[in-house]
Design a protein that fits this description.
4% helix; globular; 1 helix; five-stranded mixed beta barrel
């Protein structure tokens, strides 16, 4: 079943400890405005092989989700597991492209070359900047009556974990699958008007999952890559990520009545029949596609109801005839604020 108590924890980082031992977690001690203490437990090693977690740090995280973060109350806020619930979904929320993620060991001799150190750089900065805030998405535990926290000693023990993708799981973890319940860390640095996000995923997890259950719906065949190659991706039938890309969109035209359109690029060496393909908007309304997209070609696609591209920020997703996500992008209200200008992805 999905996570029982999914939500977001908002607070100020106070202390941290690097992950160590057989089941290492990077630990962050934070406090909310009321003085309540919490611990964020961040996996930095997988129990399933391969053990290296995949990670991506977006130093300048630009996404319509952040527009609602500052209004969240300090402390823990439960979130609905829906497209408009405020939670994270790596796949449906178009938070990042799969090929952006890189596997990394949690502890390697030398500077700036393991996951502990990558996480620590952001946390140390947040601790040093007095106005910085951390938002941790995952599953809450506690408060644990009079039991002291195992790492930082505050009473009662209290915190949040599952700070990673929580769908497309394998083995005994399939029961944790769900949609719009992914974990992650988002940091806000107001002095530089910067949002920074950390996304984590186990290599055993799938990028293509059911829209209702979060279970894997397409897995690589034997011999196929399990993750898109970040340097020279070769999309396959079961891993079509990046085969066609959404290059730009007109979400706020000057025309009356207003028209919306986008441009698709075929990155492959073959013509692609678009029958059965769809464009999905932020509300997951879907518009069918048709025709043929030539090898290496670009096509302009007019957006028609029921799909629509909001001027207040949104996400756009391209699905193939099997319903698998091929590409996805997002844009903010600010990016849509210039009438007549394309939003380039």
């Amino acid at each position: 079943m999905p996570l029982k108590n999914y939500g977001v924890l908002k607070g100020r980082p106070i202390a941290r400890r690097l992950g160590a031992g057989s089941s290492p977690h990077y630990q962050i001690h934070i406090a909310d405005q009321a003085g309540t203490n919490y611990r964020i437990a961040v996996n930095v090693k997988s129990k399933l092989a391969p053990s290296e977690l995949m990670y991506h740090i977006k130093s300048h995280f630009v996404h319509p989700l952040t527009a609602g973060f500052e209004a969240l109350a300090s402390g823990f806020t439960p979130l609905d597991r829906t497209a408009l619930g405020g939670g994270l979904d790596y796949i449906r929320g178009n938070l990042l492209q799969p090929a952006m993620m890189t596997p990394l060991p949690f502890n390697v001799p030398g500077p700036d070359n393991d996951l502990n150190e990558k996480v620590d750089q952001i946390v140390q900065r947040a601790m040093a900047e007095a106005d910085a805030t951390v938002y941790a998405f995952g599953e809450r535990w506690g408060p644990e009556n009079n039991k002291a926290d195992a790492y930082f000693g505050f009473v009662p023990g209290n915190g949040i974990h599952d700070i990673h993708m929580n769908q497309g799981n394998a083995g005994s973890f399939v029961g944790d699958d769900g949609v719009w319940q992914d974990g992650g860390l988002v940091f806000h640095f107001p002095s530089s008007n910067q949002w920074t996000a950390l996304f984590l995923k186990f290599q055993s997890q799938s990028w293509h999952t059911d829209d209702r259950t979060g279970h894997t719906i397409a897995a690589p065949e034997p011999g196929e890559p399990t993750q898109p190659d970040p340097v020279a991706p070769q999309p396959t039938e079961n891993l079509p990520d990046g085969l066609v890309r959404i290059m730009a969109a007109m979400v706020n035209s000057k025309e009356s009545p207003e028209r919306e359109w986008l441009y698709l690029l075929n990155t492959s060496d073959r013509d692609l029949a678009l029958e059965g393909w769809q464009i999905a908007d932020k509300q997951k309304a879907k518009m069918p596609l048709a025709g043929t997209l030539a090898a290496g070609g670009v096509v302009k696609v007019e957006i028609k109801p029921p799909a629509a591209l909001s001027n207040k920020g949104g996400i756009i997703t391209l699905l193939n005839a099997k319903g698998l996500k091929v590409h996805g992008v997002s844009y903010t209200k600010q990016q849509a604020g210039n009438p007549g200008w394309l939003v380039v992805f």
